[in-house]
Amino acid sequence: METAISSNMGMVMVAAVIITLALVFYTIGVFAERKSGVLRPKHLAFFWTGFVFDTAGTTIMSQVAGGGGSGSPLHAITGVLALSLMLFHAVWATLVIIRGNDRSKANFHRLSIGVWLFWLIPYGVGMMLGMPMIHLSDEAALAVCVVAVLALGIYFCVKANKERLAH
Length: 167
What we know:
Blueprint: H1 2-36, H2 41-66, H3 73-99, H4 102-107, H5 109-130, H6 138-166
Helix pairs in contact: 1-2, 1-5, 2-3, 3-5, 5-6
């Protein structure tokens, strides 16, 4: 029994590292694209790498949860939605690059930041639910993450408006 628990904890740790790598790659792609002002193939590499890492980490976490782990339905639902959005985002970015429309490449960052913000919700919920010292229900963890993401979204909107007015 102790070996199974230890094995599950090891799998959770591996999955957490992999999902955090997804956050790192996806964040680099989103903010590098935003900074450059135009979608480029190198940004695609970061989007797809983030998606692959998130899919791998989520798969491992799902196996652990399926093996008697305490899975959160809200976390699972937001996680599936976030993965779906990441896939849509990466596919759409690929199509924009292939089509080569300069206006689409210049405006793509708006979709990128939205998908990234949404992705932060299940990442944050999973992190909070995975910390034993934080005793939050699924609903409370989701509420905290949604409020934090809304605050970030407002910050980015205000910042973008200031930049647009400055030009």
